[in-house]
Amino acid sequence: MKVIQLVFLKHGHIRINYEWIQSENPFADETLIFIHGIGLDMHTWEFVIPYLRKYYDIVTYDLRGHGKSDSGDEKGTVELLYKDFTFLLSELEIKSYHIVAQGFGGLIGVYHAAQEQKLSNQLRSLILLSVPFHYPKKLGSKVVRQRKELVEGQDNMLGMGKELIDKICYPPTKEKQAIIFNAYKKVSPTVYFNLFHTDDLPNATRNLQKIEKPILILSGSEDEVFPPELNSASLNFNVNVRYYTVPYASFLVQMDQPKITADWIHNFIEKQRMHQEQGAFHKDLTAELYTEIRGMLHEEDQHELEVNIMNGFGVSLNKQRILEGWGKRKAKQILVYLLLQHSSTRDELCDVFWPEVDLNNARNRLRVALHHLNHLLQTNSNTKFLVTEREHVYLQGNIKSDLVDHIEAIKAAQHITDLDKRARQYQEILSQITENPLPGLYEEWFLNKRYWIERKWGDMSIFLAERFEQRGMIKDAFYYMKVAYQYQSENYDVYQRLTALEEKLP
What we know:
The protein has helices spanning 49-52, 78-92, 106-119, 137-150, 158-168, 174-185, 189-195, 201-210, 228-232, 253-256, 258-278, 281-298, 331-341, 346-353, 359-376, 402-414, 419-430, 444-470, 474-487, 492-504; strands at 4-11, 14-21, 31-35, 57-61, 97-102, 123-129, 215-220, 241-246, 304-308, 314-317, 320-322, 343-345, 386-388, 392-395, 398-401.
């Protein structure tokens, strides 16, 4: 007999809706914990549960702000949802368990698995369905922008759900539509877009590399949003990963092919148990195999391109400075643009660098410019830093840039919850500021990027000024408010606070 407990757990000021399903096997001693994708809810697991409860107890729950769980006042982050997950584990006293996670919900599972190794040994394996660990930043930003346009002025994500239904299900039956539409109706755009972005993917990749538990990744052969190529790339980050493509399935593989998905999950768990009993030979073989393959792939990939911008433009290839050619055919501008954007279409490059020229003429100029840039970046091996496809242009390989590192540091510091640590990081970042972070780059796109960076410098300076003022360190507070005023002189409040601090100076 199926035993279901549908209840709420109180975590701080919010309620978390969860469901406990007892296994058909009275001797089951392991639990599957399902984490649904962003925008969806626990009901997306209903098709696959009947096949898996033959062997395991099952827990499903709604992420905060999804389904019947409260959203709370805190901004949704992977770390916050991880804390909800660990709270659920503790309250339900779950000991031996496997995580099965979908889409961006998989980032919670990866974060937990990376942290859990330091705490206990209760997690047995991690199973990820259609979870991207890398997504081209330019295309990712475009996807986010398009989804925001679909729900502009709306109070839920239903409009986006109707637009995506044909892409995330194969095929989108009425039963699937009802479950998915009902889930999207309960999620606000604020909750959704606080979580749906590509900023967390680099951290997820680093966490994936730390995990020593067995990992299974499944994706649908017909998934257009996160195609198999994105998921199979995860094999390069962790030797414990096994990857399979589910036939005739899209993003929601557990709804499109529930029996295959369940069989593969169960077989994976059983095989890992058997391998543990047989010893470490298979793991050692796999680890050595991947090490040798990576060595073969990277034998000729030792070239390093370094692009310094903030303290004067300079490009070095394998520590040798490339001195000439940067003032021609917009080589400098295109290189820096691609460094910051990661990927671009040819038409976007035309719009940025030749906005007043007709498209055909601009495309011809771009073709000549890319040929020139490619020539500047040529190496003596097969290493190719500039990739020019029919539609897309991007950089690849071992590339370093002071400006890219600076921007990434700003973004990372903003997510530090410990205020003392954030303050120290802000001080480190502000010690690197220059008169102009993008010297010699005057296109409108670069001017907007410079404005964004300087605005962040101002915001960080205000934060530090307030911290020092609270501690009675007026001299330091005045210094940072003065820096803030340098970048936000139009802000009258900053001027007033600067004046007030100056009057307090000893």
